């Protein structure tokens, strides 16, 4: 991938990270102002429910922030846009839709199929001599 494109993706990822961090910060400050307002126990239950909801949302956002951090590290190492599993180049279209993608479309599909499968038995030959060290 050309340096200019790398920089483009880096900026894209940084912007996404800042936006998410901002959202997480907002959630936390929102939680602080909400508590203490209601004395009623029914309201307290509602507040607790909202809090749980927000906390799980925050967990998801944190997960995404972590993914973005890893993508930025891959940019630094020159590994960005390369499939973790097969070493093929991940299409730009796919990267634009999801810059944190670590797998090419085929490998992603294969992984999803394997996860969906009730009996995830995979034939020996496709357990491959993967140079990434990711195998079954
Ligand atoms: Zn792949």
CATH class of the domain at 3-80: Mainly Alpha
Sheet with the most strands, sense and barrel status: none
Averaging pLDDT over every residue, what do you get? 81
Helices and strands, in N-to-C order? Answer: HHHH
| CATH architecture assignment of the domain at 3-80 | Up-down Bundle
Helix content: 55-70%
CATH H-level superfamily title of the domain at 3-80: DksA, coiled-coil domain
Compact description:
The protein has helices spanning 3-34, 41-76, 92-97, 105-116.
Q: What can you tell me about this protein's structure?
A:
There is one protein chain. The chain has 136 residues and is mainly α. It has a domain at 3-80: Four Helix Bundle (Hemerythrin (Met), subunit A) (Up-down Bundle), CATH 1.20.120. It is built from four helices and no strands. The protein has helices at 3-34, 41-76, 92-97, 105-116. α1 runs antiparallel to α2. The longest helix has 36 residues, at 41-76. Mean pLDDT is 81; it is low at 126-136. The site of zinc ion has 8 residues, from α4.
Top keywords for this entry?
Four Helix Bundle (Hemerythrin (Met), subunit A); single chain; binds zinc ion; 4 helices; 136 residues; mainly alpha; elongated
SSE diagram, text form:
Blueprint lengths: L2 H32 L6 H36 L15 H6 L7 H12 L20
Helix pairs in contact: 1-2
Bound molecules: zinc ion.
Zinc ion binds next to helix 4.
